[in-house]
Specification:
The chain is an all-alpha fold and 132 residues long. It has one domain: N-utilizing Substance Protein B Homolog, Chain A. The protein is globular.
């Protein structure tokens, strides 16, 4: 899989935490990988799971940072799609040294164009820009 496709899969898996109890996420991860339209190699599956786990581990810190940087907005007011994309972008900017900040923002904007509402990409871009 390409890096973009892997990031999209991480987004899709991460999006589930908004709707599914943490106790059920192991089962949901299994379902995700067995029912996905994408075929995961062992390496790709490990990459997606590892990055997902690292983001979930830091969600509270990421959300606090988002709330600190955004004026007039809070994570509670953001659409679940936008919030998930922003969480992924913030993780890549703040915690993932392997991904350049410009790439993290560009990829988040592309996810917002694909999965968000009409103006989501602009909102995602402006929030993530505050982390540079």
């Amino acid at each position: 899989m390409t890096r973009r496709t892997l990031r999209e899969q991480i987004f899709k898996l991460l999006f589930r935490i908004e709707f599914i109890d943490s106790e059920e996420m192991d089962e949901q991860k299994d379902l995700f990988f067995t029912t996905s339209d994408e075929e995961f190699s062992e390496e790709d599956s490990k990459y997606v799971q590892d990055k997902y786990e690292k983001i979930v581990e830091k969600v509270a810190d990421i959300d606090a940072a988002i709330n600190d940087k955004t004026k007039g907005w809070s994570t509670d007011r953001m659409s679940k799609v936008d919030l998930t994309i922003i969480r992924l972008g913030v993780y890549e900017i703040v915690y993932d040294d392997d991904i350049p900040n410009t790439v993290a923002i560009n990829e988040a904007v592309e996810l917002a164009k694909k999965f968000g509402q009409d103006e989501s990409y602009s909102f995602v871009n402006s929030v993530l820009d505050k982390f540079i």
